[in-house]
Structures are given as C-alpha cells and as structure tokens.
Design a protein that fits this description.
Layout lengths: L2 H11 L12 E4 L9 E4 L4 H10 L3 E4 L16 H11 L3 E4 L2 H5 L4 H8 L3 E10 L2 E9 L3 H10 L13 E10 L14 E14 L3 H11 L7 E6 L2 E17 L1 H12 L5 E2 L7 E7 L7 H6 L4 E4 L4 H6 L5 E4 L2 H5 L2 H12 L5 E3 L11
Parallel strand pairs: 2-3, 2-15, 3-4, 12-13, 13-14
Antiparallel strand pairs: 1-4, 5-10, 6-8, 6-9, 7-8, 10-12, 11-14
Helix pairs in contact: 1-12, 6-7
Amino acid sequence: MRIKDIIKEIERHAPLNLQEDFDNAGIQIGDVNQQATGALLCLDVTEEIVDEAINAGFNLIISHHPLAFKPFKSLTGKNYIERCMIKACKNDMVIYSAHTNMDNAAGGVNYKLAEMFGLEDIRILSPQKQKLMKIVTFVPEDAAETLRRALFKAGAGHIGNYSSCSFNAEGNGTFLAGANSNPYRGEIGRIHIEKEVRIETVFPAYKKSTVIHALLSAHPYEEPAFDLYKLENEWQQAGSGIIGILPEWEDELIFLQRIKDVLNVECLKHSSLTGRKLRTVSICGGNGAFLINEAITSGADIFITGEAKYNDFYDVENHLLLAVIGHYESEICTKDIFYHIISKKFPTFAVQNSIANSNPIKYL
C-alpha cells in the first residue's frame, strides 16, 4: 500500500476543497508514491514527534495543524519547523495535514466533540456559503434512470440526510442533426422531436468536474445539453462549529466540570454564570470565538471553544455561558478521528496515536 492511498481515504472524509483560504492543509513534504510503513497521528508536528515516527519505523505523519503555513525562502534549520522538515527529508518521510478541511467536514472535529458530550439533533452552527451548484440536463426517457444513477454516484443529489435527490419533468426536445453528426435518435438533415426528461440535481461545487464527466459518460447523446448554476444556498453538510441538545438539562457548574473531565482540561476559563440550566450546546474547536454571535443567535445556552479574547467574555453578557478550554485540549480528539478513518479502511495497517504532548502552553 502506498502513502497516497492513506491520504486519499483521509480526503474522502475531509476534502481539501473544504479548507479555508488562509489554510495550508495537504501534503507538507515527501513522496506520497512510496510504500507506507506506518502512520503516526498527532495534533502538531514537533521534533519529538518526528523522532517518535522514526523510532517506530513509520514513514508517514498525519497532523491536524499544518507544519508550514508560510512559503520558505531558505531551509537552514533556524527553527523547529525547518528542523522537522530537514529531518523528515533525510528519513524519506511524508508529513500530511488535515486542518480546516477536517474542521469543516461532516464527521470532523466538532462532530467528534459533540459525540463526546452526547449531544443529540446536531447541526452545523455556521454552514458554508456559495459552495453548492446545480446541474440541469435533458435526456431521452429510456436513458433517464441510468443518467440519474451516474450523477448520484459522482456525488450529486445529497440534501441533508437524503440522497439520490433530483427533480424531473417531461417535455419535448428538438434537434436537427448535421452532416457530420452521429445522432442517437432521428435522421441526419431532418428535424427530430424526442420525448425527454429534464433532470436537475445539486452537488458540492468542488465535485463539478467529476459530475460533468459522469454526465458526459452516461448520456446517450453525442452532444448532451446541460446547464450549471451557482447556488446561494447554505451547504448544511459542511461548515464551522456544531450545535446540539443535551439529553437532559444540566446545572452550569456541573457541566463545566464535565467539560474538564471529558476533555482532560487542566484549566477552564468561563464567563459569568447566567444562573440558568443548560440544554443547547454549541462548540467550535480551536480558535472559534468568531462564532460567538452565531451561537447566541442560534439560542445556545453555552458556547465551548479553544480560544477567545478578553473582551469576548464581556460581549457575551448574559446571553450564554462562554467556556474556553484551550486550543490543544479542544482539538486533541482529531487523532482519534484519523485513527478511526484509517483503521476502518485498512484494518491491518500499522497506525498509532503519538504519545508526545505537543501542547506549547503549560500550566503552573
């Protein structure tokens, strides 16, 4: 098995197209065509973690946070990032990161946190916008089902918990086949009227080329007609943060202590207690303070995140309880997500979580 096979499975769950513009998820360094000897999973790549992979005989490191965010003008080993890269190169290793693409993906970081707290009826707190397209095509009645299946297999037709979604309307199509054509129906040089089905379905914009290829491959016409539309709809299956409901109402202090216990948090910061019990919980791992207003608007009783500014604790006022647990603590569960994805697809492949604590913040 090659390293690129492992990466392909990660990206099937968290496509790189879901990452934010500022991010640098993906291959950080190395040749993905080489045979994979094992994968070490971590939140951050440090020299200690590179050594851990080398000692285990693994040539693949998968991290949540990218090792490199900025381009290099030189590679001299002047900081830990460059030293990690140099050591990885010397040992023919690959370093790969799934960052905001894993944050934004269904089943990603925030879904894992929601699962750990037992939230029900979960949904994306801030769905991605302008990430959907619609394709419309016209096909003979006897070929409609085959074409629909091809579009669905290519990733079209998913709306929430439903798949194979499409709209279909019957009508008549006309065409005049030219001298050099090879018409599926009708005769060259004569107007033909064909009973057709108008099929329209939605798909994530990043699957555009795959969906078009599926249409062209399955459509019986020599020159299929189709239209593409960019949609303003929010994409409810991808985006930032999560919101869900606790099975029962909980006391604020008791739930804050549960956060510490579940996530192994040494020090938890929170805003003034509201005096109300909690039921609706919103979460965003990492630096999620930008979602505070969305959490308030959504009616959340508490918002849990990894980082927030001083004034954020004022700004929530009495609208909700803000709990800040630390960036590392809020995303360390990413290792378990990677482990589940890889071990489920490749059950005999050597994969393990790093034992090194890469949290740069220490508590006294």
